[in-house]
Amino acid sequence: MVNRPILDASILAQLDPRVRAVLTHWPMDPATSVKDREEILAERASPEGQAASALEKKFMDLADREDVASSKGLTATTVQFTSSPDGNPIKMHVTRRVDIASTAGVYYIHGGAMSSLSCFYGNYLAWARVVASFGVTVVMVDFRNAVSPSSSLEVAPFPAGLHDCISGLEWTSAHAHDLGIDPNRIVIAGESGGGNLTIATALLLKQRDKIHLVKGLYALCPYLNGHWPDDRYPSASMYDGVALELHSNRGAMAYGIDAFLARNPLAWPGFATVDDVRGLPPVVISVNECDPLRDEGIAFYRLLLAAGVKAKGRIVLGTSHATELYPVTCPEITRDTARDLANFALA
User: Domain 9-346 belongs to what architecture?
Assistant: First the structure.
């Protein structure tokens, strides 16, 4: 992790005081550029990198608290499937209400720039409980990360994680009744890198004529562009250093520089065109006010409208990147977004 930049007082004034307090402890990756993906892998494998990853997990696990995300009336299980076409085993975490036999499903993809974190970290377990409490079944996929292991020890660049996400979605659809899910009411959701994979999974489903498997997408603070700063998106400079430092080539290098240079929208949906997104089901794009990714999310929302996709946009004031996914920070904000996601799935 890195030394935190000193933020301008005017930016600090925009943030909820609870968010400001948490940001002093928020783990962030270095902002320096690298020569290749192997340099990032070597950093993460070093004793310092291993210690930083352990600290990150410890910090995320602090959010797993009953007082903000009760498990009362819920059940949680782990299932495993075989991803295609690579044949690797992937785990999923399923959270559901015990008093509902069949309901809508939220297929959730965790964040971490497609490169790190795990849906089994405490903050995601808590988030799943909050979302499920509103009457939906939450299925979280622990796909292969590009840099640091999830529950899958294998790390691999694009398209490995995307393969796992679409395979998990297809498995969830095929086993919907066993999971207590109405197969006609499945939405894909995810934050940050998971927002990228939410959209990319839908784009790939569309290419394969399988978009009928999902009724909607809900992308929180999606990580879409792959290169920053970008004059098209002022927030990328205005809020750089608020929870995220983006101004390096690390994101593209970690996930796979060839896909970025090829402007592949399945890797970086910021490259998507009107034709790419036309025909998608309804989409919600939710962004955080003080997030460097805010403006690229808003731009994607406008691309959807231009393509005739039914889209809704929301801006969560006073928050930094993915505030909702750390439920102890602002529990009522987390619950509000969780309620909106659940209602979107249930509609």
Answer: 3-Layer(aba) Sandwich (3.40)
